Amino acid sequence: MSRRILMLAAIAAAAAFITTAPADAAWRVIKWDITGVCQVWNFGVDGKPIPFDYRLMSRALPTFGAAVNAKERLFHAGRCAF
After folding, report:
1. More exposed terminus of the chain, fewer Cβ within 10 Å: N or C?
2. Which CATH number do you get for residue 69?
3. Is residue 8 domain-resident?
4. What is the pLDDT of residues 9-67, one digit of tens each?
5. Is residue 68 part of a domain?
6. What is the pTM of this model?
7. How many domains does the chain have?
8. Is 65 inside a domain boundary?
């Protein structure tokens, strides 16, 4: 019985650690060369996009919301197709 409680406590501690650990967020707006479409990409988690025919359109941004706002500004400035 105590082994089961210890296992549940370890799982709960791991879940708490995972949900509170800060992610290495490096949100950027990229533009695909072929289509001209811009996309929000997290280089901190996802790595580099495949295929490699894209251009960086923004600096590293701390949040997804900031990246979406940057993408919207680029679209209104005519630098992104969508």
Report:
1. N
2. 3.90.820
3. no
4. 445 544 443 333 345 679 999 999 999 999 999 998 867 888 889 999 999 999 999 99
5. yes
6. 0.67
7. 1
8. yes
